[in-house]
Amino acid sequence: MAVVLLIAAILLGLVMIPFGMPGTLVLFAAALCYHLLVPHAGIGVATVVAIGVLMVIAEGLEWVLTSRFTRKYGGSKRASWGAIIGGMVGAFVGVPVPIIGSVVGAFVGAFVGAFIFEWSQHGGTGVATRVAWGAFVGRVTAAALKVAFGLVMAVWMIAATVL
Asked: Rounded to an integer, what is the distance from CA 11 to the centroid of its chain?
């Protein structure tokens, strides 16, 4: 029964990641709970620590990549913060739309946030659009990497319980 609950938590976490929700945190919590509640049954301290490290890296990459791509496309620090804040606001605002609302909201929010913050500083729509496009590309790249990290975390946890 414990393995079934672990697999359900893993699936929930994996589904949450592309929607901009903290799916890697759910995966970490599942590993930690399984370790604490089912001692000597597969997931050890080393696995929990490794899953925690992967979670921190994945969450950090999400912020760093959005900011880096914004800067790579000519944006200022201000535009980078606009992309990060806009992505978070967009994910939150998009939640009421079923299934894809938070994903689209996060992408659009990063674009709009970078655009507004860059446009308000420099006033040119051409530059602001290029910078906003960079924020969008960064957010998409970050989401794809975060899903990949989630899959690695899931496989690691399943392997730890089976082997």
From this structure: 16
Give which of 140, 111, 154 is closest to 23, Cα–Cα.
154
Q: Kindly provide the residue ranges of all beta strands, DSSP E only, lying in the chain, ordered along the sequence.
A: none
Q: What CA–CA distances, in Å, run from 101 to 12, 93, 120, 160, 162?
A: 17, 8, 27, 34, 36
Packed helices 125-162 and 45-72: angle between N→C axes, nearest 10 degrees: 170
Per the CB < 8 A criterion, the answer to whether 20 and 103 are in contact is: yes
Q: Which two structure tokens, joined as six digits, stand for 9? A: 């938590």
Intervals of the chain under pLDDT 70 = 95, 98-99
Collect all residues with Cβ–Cβ distance below 8 Å to 141 and sequence separation of at least 6. 65, 69
Contacts of 83 (CB under 8 A, 6+ apart): 66, 67, 70, 75, 110, 111, 113, 114, 117, 132, 135, 138, 139
pLDDT tens digit sequence for 75-85: 888 888 888 88
Residue 54 tokens read as 């992967």
Tokens of 114: 């970078």
Cβ–Cβ < 8 Å for 88, 109: yes
